[in-house]
Amino acid sequence: MKKEKGLRSHEWFGKKDKMGFIYRSWMRNQGIPDHHFDGRPVIGICNTWSELTPCNAHFRDFAEVVKRGVYEAGGFPVEFPVTSLGETLLKPTAMLFRNLASMDVEESIRGNPIDGVVLMTGCDKTTPSLVMGAASVGLPTIVMPGGPMLNGKYKGEDIGSGTHVWKFHEDLKAGNITEEDFFHAESCMSRSQGHCMTMGTASTMACMVESLGLTLPGAAAIPAADSRKKVLAHMTGRRIVEMVKEDLTIEKILTREAFENSIKVNAAIGGSTNFIIHLTAIAGRIGVELDLSDFDDLGSKIPLLLNLMPSGKFLMEDFYYAGGLPVIIKQLKSHLHNDTITVNGKPIGENNKPAECYNNEVIATIDEPLIEEAGIAVLKGNLAENGAVIKPSAATPELMQHKGRAVVFEDIEDYNARVNDPDLDIDETCVMVLKNVGPKGYPGMPEVGNMGLPTKILKKGITDMVRISDGRMSGTAYGTVVLHVSPESAVGGTLGLVQNGDMIELDVEQRRLHLDISDGELAERRKNWKPIVLEESHRGYVGLYIKHVEQSNKGADMDFLKGKSGSVVKRDSH
Ligand code: FES
């Protein structure tokens, strides 16, 4: 057995004592030959395959392709499953379990004989949870994004995951389509393997990891069903072996400059508001200072270049055929740090130099962008002392400066019970306020911030109103929706003190969100405010989460998970 002192897997497989016997012998029951224990890099393939995460259900095949690349480069691949979070099925919300999954990933990597890791990511939360966990260990790490579905096709029209669900549902409520049409659209929307193919959170996360430098160039947009995704998987497997040999660890890639690049790229692609929470949480693990204001300062002056739903017209398949993320990165070169190192060992600017755009309808030029200034606006005011966010490219321009009467829903049950009541005292000038949907209050900060409009408003042909909550919004959704209000209502934030009939002012240009009542009245209401106590707070993971989760402006990670514990484990198991 060759001694490869530099590899951590040697601490397991390189031992000549009783422990070495144990570590190797049980692995041999899988038919592992001697030479796999000769000191070659052991590559963990961290797989979020699950039939309950339909967006990642093709990952068993993909992992086999990654292994081919690992073998080819002289590595020893070991695939392991981790908690997989499916956005569509998991109740009460996948976000509640992002931090739990990250703990699973972190300890699975740290506790095992792994020298480098491939993260197989797809559905929304599977990307941040894996990157957070891996960042807290610090090994060479490469991300293999699973890819979007092919475009939805319905009655000769392209339809987008999520975006068209909201649209069809509103059309159904307004009486514009039949129930039969509504059900027929289901199979037309999700017609291949892969994740949501709008610029929803999954696509945003794939672009996030590519712009951070954690994937091979061009990885994000390749559809899951395209054979070139398998080529990417193969090359990813090859590359991680080299990364181990070069000791190209994740902290060498995730620098402050890489985060700044990612914020700017996210603005140019019209990425999801969920990007803010996840990127902040990743920064917290790797030890990079990132503040909510960075997203506005760095991103809000960046032009919108990508014409994808929900902000625009096209879908991820079109994005790939138009040239993909490399075109965006190349066009933004005067805004980016072009010398940040990526997983292939080269600077991001150099990687994307050869990119060419094949369709300017899908990817606009920087000289003629779709919107001059995109990005995410961070609002402040007495209603959001720590900030709130809005995505202007998905909002109605006329509503970006608006003053309206609050119609308050105390929680999601109250909203569901009353929103379609014909007697609800509301018109289109009102501001809909939803409380107790933040990290602690729901718990888990679900994607309900884009709450549907009352049926009686939809029947008038109105499609947007100002909505405010401490929750999140699906990346596939749209509207003049103020999200992530912090501090949340459940911890005594001002949002929890809003009453029906209060006037609320939104001014996106001035970055202002204001509850128009006197300080004295606010103080009086605060004195009488009582926290809600959720039944779930008493035990288990959810109890732990409620106790330790931080506010959304800090990434909604748990306080004790910030930072990293590294990759060293001093004690053996027997
Ligand atoms: Fe999985 Fe949208 S539901 S990516």
Model description:
The chain has 574 residues and is α/β, with parallel strands linked by helices. The protein has four domains: 1-39, no CATH class; 40-150 and 192-352, Rossmann fold, CATH 3.40.50; 161-188, no CATH class; 377-530, IlvD/EDD C-terminal domain-like (Glucose Oxidase, domain 1, 3-Layer(bba) Sandwich), CATH 3.50.30. It has helices spanning 10-13, 18-28, 59-72, 98-110, 126-135, 163-174, 179-189, 201-212, 227-246, 250-253, 256-269, 274-286, 292-299, 316-322, 325-331, 348-352, 412-418, 455-458, 519-528, 540-548; strands at residues 42-47, 76-81, 116-121, 141-145, 152-154, 157-159, 377-381, 384-390, 401-409, 431-434, 466-469, 481-486, 503-507, 512-515. An eight-stranded mixed sheet has the order 7-8-12-11-10-9-13-14. Strands 2-1-3-4 form a four-stranded parallel sheet, sandwiched between helices. Strands 5-6 form a two-stranded antiparallel ribbon. Helix 3 links the parallel strand 1 and strand 2 (76-81). The longest helix has 20 residues, at 227-246. It binds FE2/S2 (inorganic) cluster. FE2/S2 (inorganic) cluster binds at residues 55, 87-88, 123-124, 161, 195-196, 200, 202.
Task: Please specify the SSE layout and strand pairing.
Elements: H1 10-13, H2 18-28, E1 42-47, H3 59-72, E2 76-81, H4 98-110, E3 116-121, H5 126-135, E4 141-145, E5 152-154, E6 157-159, H6 163-174, H7 179-189, H8 201-212, H9 227-246, H10 250-253, H11 256-269, H12 274-286, H13 292-299, H14 316-322, H15 325-331, H16 348-352, E7 377-381, E8 384-390, E9 401-409, H17 412-418, E10 431-434, H18 455-458, E11 466-469, E12 481-486, E13 503-507, E14 512-515, H19 519-528, H20 540-548
Parallel strand pairs: 1-2, 1-3, 3-4, 9-10, 10-11, 11-12
Antiparallel strand pairs: 5-6, 7-8, 8-12, 9-13, 13-14
Helix pairs in contact: 3-9, 4-5, 5-12, 8-11, 11-12, 11-13
The structure holds FE2/S2 (inorganic) cluster (FES).
